[in-house]
Design goal:
Nuclear Transport Factor 2, Chain: A; 5 helices; globular; DUF4440; Steroid_delta5-4_isomerase; NTF2-like_dom_sf; DUF4440 domain-containing protein
C-alpha cells in the first residue's frame, strides 16, 4: 500500500453541529473547573474507565483516580493560583460516537490574543454513550520554547 492510498480517519464533517457544540461545552467546563479550583467540575465529564497522561507524563487510570489527582492538583501551590484559557483547535469524528479533539492552552486569553504560542496542547478522545459525550482519554503536553 502506498502512503497515498491510506484512508482518512474522519468519517464526516460535523462542524457546527450539536455534537461539536456539546464537546466544546465539556472543554469549557474543564477550563472553568481549572480556573475556579473546582475538582468536581474538572472530573465530571470523564468516563469511569478513562485514561489520562498528565503534562509531566504521569499516567492516571479511572475516574476515581483522575478525580483524586484533580483534587490534589487544584489544592497544590503549583496550580492553586494558576489560570488557563483553552481553545479547541480541531474536532475529528472518527466514528459516529468517537471524536478526537485537540485543545490549545494559554495562561490567559490575553496571551492568545497577543499571538503568543500556546503553552500546552492536549489530545482528547471523546465517546458518546447514552446520548452524552464523555472524555475517554486525554494527554496533555507542555510546549517548550525553542532555544
Amino acid at each position: 500500500m502506498e502512503i497515498t492510498d491510506a484512508p482518512t480517519a474522519a468519517r464526516q464533517s460535523r462542524a457546527g453541529t450539536q455534537d461539536e457544540d456539546a464537546i466544546r461545552a465539556v472543554i469549557a467546563d474543564v477550563e472553568t473547573g481549572f480556573n475556579t479550583n473546582d475538582a468536581d467540575l474538572l472530573s465530571r465529564h470523564f468516563a469511569g474507565d478513562a485514561k489520562v497522561v498528565a503534562a509531566f507524563g504521569q499516567t492516571i487510570d479511572g475516574r476515581e483516580a483522575i478525580d483524586e489527582a484533580n483534587r490534589q492538583g487544584v489544592a497544590s501551590p503549583f496550580l492553586k493560583d494558576a489560570t488557563a484559557h483553552y481553545t479547541v483547535s480541531s474536532i475529528t469524528f472518527v466514528e459516529e460516537d468517537v471524536a478526537l479533539v485537540r485543545k490549545l492552552a494559554w495562561s490567559t486569553a490575553e496571551d492568545e490574543s497577543a499571538g503568543k504560542p500556546p503553552e500546552m496542547v492536549a489530545l482528547y478522545v471523546f465517546v458518546r454513550r447514552d446520548g452524552r459525550w464523555w472524555i475517554a482519554a486525554r494527554q496533555n503536553t507542555l510546549i517548550g520554547q525553542p532555544a
